[in-house]
Design goal:
CATH topology: Hypothetical protein af1432
CATH class: Mainly Alpha
Strand content: under 5%
Oligomer: single chain
Helix content: 55-70%
Radius of gyration: 16 Å
CATH superfamily: Hypothetical protein af1432
Low-confidence stretches: 1-7, 144-164
Number of domains: 1
Number of helices: 9
Number of strands: 0
Mean pLDDT: 81
CATH architecture: Orthogonal Bundle
Order of helices and strands: HHHHHHHHH
Shape: globular
Length: about 160
């Protein structure tokens, strides 16, 4: 089973690598995928920014990678629409369990990357923390600059546990 997962994961990863030119984006997608509990979620996590960033359509990915309907629905839910307000998008992600789990991992990786560039990324971290709160508790969380890293790492788990 692990061999099948690695082979399939490698196929999806190679596909993403072939169409996404931003290597930081590929590293981010890989990090988000590694936080998933199943291969089905890991595949969608690898693809989570591909449609939004304009590299492929959901239909192209469905056909090329043989995604099932649940994966297609999650990919659609985790893709932010052009002109969509950020917290409307977050609330939409919350409606799909697979997309919600992937988005939590996405936020975790984004926060970890932003922590390396404080205080320049404080406003972005604050937005991500609020989104995390909406996904987990249904309300925005606020954070203070004082002891920022302690506050964030204190309430964001190192591994996201969900349906994935």
């Amino acid at each position: 089973m692990l061999g099948m997962f690695l082979q399939d994961f490698e196929t999806v990863y190679e596909y993403v690598f072939s169409i996404v030119k931003d290597k930081c984006a590929i590293e981010h997608a890989y990090n988000v995928a590694m936080l998933q509990m199943t291969n089905r979620c890991a595949y969608v996590a690898l693809l989570h920014d591909v449609v939004e960033d304009g590299y492929a359509t959901i239909d192209e990915l469905r056909k090329s990678l043989y995604l099932d309907e649940e994966q297609v629905a999650a990919l659609d839910a985790i893709t932010r629409r052009q002109g969509e307000r950020y917290f409307d998008y977050i609330k939409r992600c919350k409606q799909n369990e697979m997309a919600k789990t992937i988005k939590l991992a996405d936020l975790q990786d984004n926060i970890n990357r932003c922590l390396k560039d404080l205080p320049n990324r404080y406003s972005l971290i604050s937005r991500y923390a609020k989104a995390y709160g909406v996904l987990i508790r249904g309300e925005k969380c606020s954070i203070k600059l004082k002891n920022l890293q302690t506050e964030i790492t204190g309430w964001i788990p190192m591994e996201i546990n969900g349906i994935c």
